[in-house]
Design goal:
By secondary structure, the chain is mostly helical. The protein is built from 3 helices and no strands.
């Protein structure tokens, strides 16, 4: 389970950095990444939704008596 958590964290980190970079353009992306922009945004959106669901699940367990 530890390796799966690390892979999930890395995916969230990459998606977050990509979204930040797409807003501020700190780094110019290569053409092949720009051509896959719609797919990257789709995967990033899914990861954000999954993160929100996990946040709600963790909060529910935190306050259970």
């Amino acid at each position: 389970m530890g390796k799966l958590s690390l892979i999930g964290f890395v995916l969230y980190l990459i998606a977050g950095l990509y979204f930040i970079n797409s807003s501020f353009n700190f780094i110019t992306m290569p053409e092949f990444i720009q051509s896959a922009d719609k797919w990257i945004l789709l995967v990033g959106g899914i990861l954000i939704i999954l993160g929100g669901i996990n946040y709600l699940r963790a909060g529910k367990n935190k306050f259970a008596y």
